[in-house]
């Protein structure tokens, strides 16, 4: 168990403000504070730094079996485990993917699957220096007592699940909860989101997994960008308050914030410069400097080679964007379309 010792004395401890010696000042004892994450602290920091390495990003392929089935049905394939395995294999065996991708979030089924040749998917990722991750939440459900808002379930049994995921090769975790601006957001919903994320983060770290902290500010609504900034600052303030209360190691987490934009139904679209300005304002005001990485996750082709080229192209675009060098030159009209879907669940 890692321990941190804080000494509450100093060379001037025996002096009053005016420099005169104290009379019979009681001895001050050192306070020992338990560091979060136990024996995994060093590994968590190393994992977080690897996932947040410059020029690389996270591949999110953690769709549920039902959502994956929708993708398969669009090309006339049945939603079977064998077809889902083939789809995942197509993506995870892309040559050169590790140049642009540092971590891959997997659905539970995928974490335990192998290629048709018998190689574990987690080993395919590790061979390219890609950290395997795992979705650990159990989805959104209505929040009783709120203004038609949601909360994220999954804390029950989370410790044992994280321990098993770690044994299987996972090294980071994802937990997504949401906050709706048109619904308030209510103080209850904000507190529930923040507390749930903090408990998840502490449990994940205690079992060797770097937690991605993700309170998504939904795009639904006709509000302006200033209203989004106000809500985002409120949410992230609560999140970090409860993370600290739960002794979460900030150097061993990753953030997934929403960009600060107007609501999807707002009458005026914000410029990229305005979105960047408001997003950076929120992050600078709320995120402690100890946090190693901020990840903005984003959102067929039937021929295998064409599909892998498409994935690699998107990964490279993400890499350039992270380095501030993305221009959009050569992108297709399809790639430039927005990905917002009202009331989206997965």
Could you explain how this protein is built, in words?
With 346 residues, the protein is of the alpha/beta class. Helix content is 38%, strand content 14%. Strands 3-4-5-8-9-10 form a six-stranded parallel sheet. Strands 1-2 form a two-stranded antiparallel ribbon. The chain has a two-stranded antiparallel sheet with strand order 6-7. Helix 8 (225-245) runs parallel beside helix 9. The longest helix has 21 residues, at 225-245.
Mean pLDDT over the full residue set: 84
Main β sheet profile: 6 strands, parallel
Global structural class: alpha/beta
Report how far the terminal alpha carbons are from each other. Answer: 37 Å
Spans of at least 5 consecutive residues whose pLDDT stays below 50 are 1-35, 299-305
Strand content: 5-15%
Strand order of the largest sheet: 3-4-5-8-9-10
| Helical fraction | 25-40%
User: What does the overall shape look like?
Assistant: globular
Number of strands: 10
**Estimated radius of gyration:** 23 Å
Helices, by number, come to: 11
Order of helices and strands: EEHEHHEHHEEEHEHEHEHHH
